[in-house]
Amino acid sequence: TKAQPEFGIFAAKLNAELVGYASYYSIPFTYSLQPTFVLQQLYVSQSHRSNKIGKFLFNELKLQARDAGAGKLEWRVMPSNTLAKRFYRCLGGLEEDTWEHWTITL
Fold this sequence. Notes:
By secondary structure, this protein is α+β, with helices and mostly antiparallel strands. The protein is 23% helix and 29% strand. The protein has helices spanning 53-67, 82-90, and strands at 7-14, 17-27, 36-44, 72-74. Strands 1-2-3-4 form a four-stranded mixed sheet, with helices on one face. The longest helix has 15 residues, at 53-67.
């Protein structure tokens, strides 16, 4: 594997207009001794959501993660966001129930 950035962004432009992006970061080593890539945000402008831009951005991130030797790619989805859940399921995503999400308000 080659050295990869710890964070990055993929951008989609159409006619010089930014129409979408996927931002991510990597956690260099986890218990599996493989990095984990975390999709921080995937956004496609409303008027371009049926043009497969989201799928393209997600697949580019998957390739980046594989090239880095990542063991997995993970992300969060709001419980009420059924469209996002359907989108990710169509791309092979699975809802994980192994880990609990914890946070603290500062």
